[in-house]
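Appendix B, record 7
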Amino acid sequence: MNARPDARDFAAPLKFGIGQPVPRSEDPVLVRGEGRYTDDLALDNQAYAVFVRSPVAHGIVRGLDADAARAMPGVLGIFSAQDLDGYGGIGNALGFTNQDGSPMRKPPQPSFATAKVRYVGEPVAVVVAETAALARDAAEAVILDIADLPVVTTPEEAAAPGAPLLYDDVPGNLALDYRTGDAAATEAAFARAAHVTTLALDNNRLVINPMEPRSAIGVYEPEGQRYTLHVGSQGVFGLRNGLADGVLKVPRDTVRVLTGHVGGSFGMKAPVYPEYLPLLHAAKVLGRPVKWTDLRSESFLSDHHGRDVAVTADLALDAEGRFLAFRVRGLANMGAYLNPLAPLFQTQNIARNMVGVYRTPAYDVAMACLFTNTTPIGAYRGAGRPEGNYFIERLIDTAAAETGRDRVALRRLNHIRPQDMPYAAPSGLTYDSGDFPAVLDRALAAADWDGFPVRRAESEARGLLRGIGIGDYLEITAPPQNEMGGIRFEADGTVTIVTGTLDYGQGHATPFAQVLHERLGIPHDRIRLLQGDSDQLIAGGGTGGSKSLMASGAAIVEAGDLVIEKGRLAAASVLEAGPADIAFQDGRFVIAGTDRGIGLLELAARVREGLPDPQAPTSLDVAHIHKESPSAFPNGCHVAEVEVDPETGVAAVVRYTTVNDFGTIVNPLLVEGQLHGGVVQGIGQALMERTAYDDQGQLVTGSFMDYCLPRAADAPPMGFESHPVPATTNPLGVKGCGEAGCAGSLPSVMNALVDALRPRGVTHINMPATPRAIWAALREAASKGSDGR
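Structure tokens (predicted):
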């Protein structure tokens, strides 16, 4: 029997509408421990895999002896590179070209090292056994014979004359010699500049540490020759396509990717990884599911890392302080292989986002992207956007100090103004909306900028240094992609949204339901969300680049309009009226000018039962593809205050204020939570997180004992205010918020830190500004001051 709506179905329709702080609907399940992550799954007759990884960073593979391991109890199979002949490698689809016009060098990444290993942790083989413990014991018994080769771990080492080569056909280890902007205009601007500020800036390498390590289960069904991969991901549709097209080399409809709950990703779980093919191959050979879950110690090596760019950046100003141009020369570390989206984040994203909120007429950005014997670099929260904002904001604060200008006034002078919108940026993009001066002014007021001298004096009375800093940021988000908007009316009276973005911690179910609730009046608690099954999708760009509401939100709105169109035809049949006389309002179809009508859910149930009119729809379901929306430009101003103990070098963020323009805010509760997470990750990068390799390519910071992550005590109280200027590029007027916390916190925290240290003679310090680094900088400045230099 079909469920029918009752009188409560359409009461108070705006209670859960756009703009309301509705709690996340998935939280009760998660806090009760009832989540279904990949490692929670146990399939019938499941076997377990453990990967054998290279213990050396660079070497020739001379042999692999697995005889003793194969004879161990419970071992079902051991697979290495020779077993994967006929499959493909992990490729890179980006079409970057070098300055001379030649294509970027992008050797494919094999699932298993063949002739050479290129980083510690590279997979060489996999052991499959009846239990995970037996598989691990056997993996430790596999003997690798690898002849060591010289190692390079930094771009500087990789670019040096005579440096050891990772690839024989990649001279100088150079993957890409990238350049963008207007070199001639930039050179002319610097030639006429009244002042040039120059900084050497490091964007430190980070280990990406989501709560849930990577895990996957490979399944093969001989009937139909179908592969299924259960895996934490950022989007099943794209991952399915990547596996089918490039790795398995089979038709897409023979591959299925399933994702349940995901415990964080930050960009890391998006691509195809080397482990996925061996799991599927082993499942096919053994005729049973094969499961693998990474240990945290392995994930430090096997998950791609983030950031790792070092630049020299220059800002040219005229005599009045107006920005004329900026210039960047940098080295970017690719690691041993190109991530499928590298080096987008180290090149184009940095250049475009460095323009920020300022009227800077020209820029010239050149980046040498080099292979090294380290874990590959991939996307991490913001993926070049925080870097670009960090570089320009540090230059602005330094230029203000060097020229004796007020740092706030310098920003105001150079802001893009509301009357400049739409603004044609030198990046070639057009900003559609924003009021950057108002956001800055509101942030200064909320942070009590004028009252800072009193707080600084109070800190000094306690023997502490205190500084205040601004992060005036803009992000170019939402890479244009098609997205599915499916609406399915179920027999139990619920409604399912089907879309190809994927919630890996953001909380999609609630805001997506708010959009549909407002558009169609469907009760919020009747709405479900389906994202993690590639078989259910006809398109899907996944989640990344802060685009979920711009893509899926627009798809849901458009799909809702299609439901209304179909519903008018069906209601006309039920109400015995012409379709032109049917109106839709507050979740009901009514005959215009009368009180005769029918609710949407009741109509859907009637349609499912069958209408007598052969011209009427047989279902109100919709499977729609939203054609890509243009990028959006979230922006804001963060103000941080930092205290430093000069005796120990310990720094703490003690006060934090944010004002942000995220356009239309669908759910302020979730937006504020997203911002908090990004800010804390920015604080971690700025003050704590340090990734270090020794000269043999061994990761020295290979565990939480060696790698410092921020904890709750390191997170300051955060003020959150909004100054929304709705985007004109999508039907909801939304702008992304997921990565903005990093974009605002890196510059605001580091500017505040330098402001605290400047009275002691420290004019710049690089990330991570650990206690040791701060202590050393203060001692060096004191030493220079004492001898008159």
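Remarks on this record: DSSP finds 19 helices and 28 strands in the chain. Residues 1-13 have pLDDT under 50 and may be disordered.
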